[in-house]
Design a protein that fits this description.
Layout lengths: L1 E5 L2 E8 L2 E6 L2 E3 L12 H16 L2 H33 L7 H22 L4 H13 L1 H11 L15 H43 L1
Antiparallel strand pairs: 1-2, 2-3, 3-4
Helix pairs in contact: 1-2, 1-4, 2-3, 2-6, 3-4, 3-5
Amino acid sequence: MAGRIGRGEIWQFDEFSSETSLRVNGRPIYLDRFRLLPGENRPDREWMMGNARYLATGVLRHDHTAQAAAELTVLFGLLTLVSGPLWARRAWGTWWVWDARLTSSLVGWMIGWAYLILRRYGGPGSDKLAAGVALFGAVNVPFIFISVNYWRTIHPPTTIVPRLPVDMGVPLWFCVFAFLLLFILLMTMRLRLEVARTRLDALYVALDE
């Protein structure tokens, strides 16, 4: 199956290493399920929105959401940065290239770590400062998604998703919903833990008084 992606690039689907792969100009590429679809940036979005609401309202519930989402952002980001090179080595013969998507994904993951470290060791007032850092990282989230549409990278453009054949589209969407459900489950558990921790801290403060 063949067609055009854009900018004169020819694509075709074929069998590669016993799995369906995609070739652009004869070069095999793969579909990164963690970053190909906008919905797959859910942990990032929840993290950014939680911080924005907390800065605007000061409601502790939004801070809890931001902290829980930040940890999941780092976790899902690690999955992306580990699984991507493993596949890339097999498909393209390289572990890593410093293209726009890979570099911006790494930067976003490092911003997540910076947020968590600041919250842990920043001292009084670090909650608002860390929220500001998270909003700085918010600019990077849409850039990760659209970068493949404006810069030539080894990743396919986002416009290819609606045109995937059934034997590749079905597994992709299955993975999307599976990881979305996993995120919802982990997010719910982490929020309950954060609320319980806050209540416990309040009890300790009350006992000290």
